[in-house]
Amino acid sequence: MLMQVLSRYILFVDGLTRRIGSAVSWLTLLLVLVIVYDVFTRYVLSSSSVAVQELEWHLFALIFLLGAAVTLQEDKHVRVDVLYSRFSPRRQALVNLVGGLVFLLPFCIVLVISSWPFVYNSFIIMESSPDPGGLPFRYFLKGAIPVGFAMLLLQGSAGMGRSLLVLLGKPLPKEAQP
């Protein structure tokens, strides 16, 4: 019973992460188009816009924050795997489980909790860019900080659940893998 609940949780979080990641991937195309526009207007038309430059880093921040969970899900994050790649699947699962418990989950929890006052204050004052011609609604961008780390926390817990299932000898079937 507990294994079924854990398996359903993992599949739910994986599906949610996949859908959010698919939506966020479109921001990458938008970022490329904004950069092309910025380069064209700056170097061909000798014109520049603070709002366009801010939009570039706003989009990059959203891609980074909201895409981190997908990166973790697909195991595409940076890993120094001098030893890890030589480990058996059970030992890899143990490393993933312990690493998640000791590093990932506490880090995400601290960031979600500590970012709330920062985000709350930004929403209260309806923060916008301090630069003339900058973008309004900076508080929405800051709101992506706890959201992104909460998504990373969810995906990390699903990954740890997957590792636990491997350690217990009941891994998810291959078709249920991300």
TrEMBL record:
It is a multi-pass membrane protein. GO terms for cellular component: plasma membrane. Signal peptide: none annotated. Residues 31-155 form the Tripartite ATP-independent periplasmic transporters DctQ component domain. Keywords: Cell inner membrane, Cell membrane, Membrane, Transmembrane, Transmembrane helix, Transport. The chain crosses the membrane at residues 20-40, 55-72, 93-116, 136-154. It holds the Pfam family DctQ. InterPro entries: DctQ, TRAP_DctQ. The keyword Cell inner membrane applies. Belongs to the TRAP transporter small permease family. This is TRAP transporter small permease subunit.
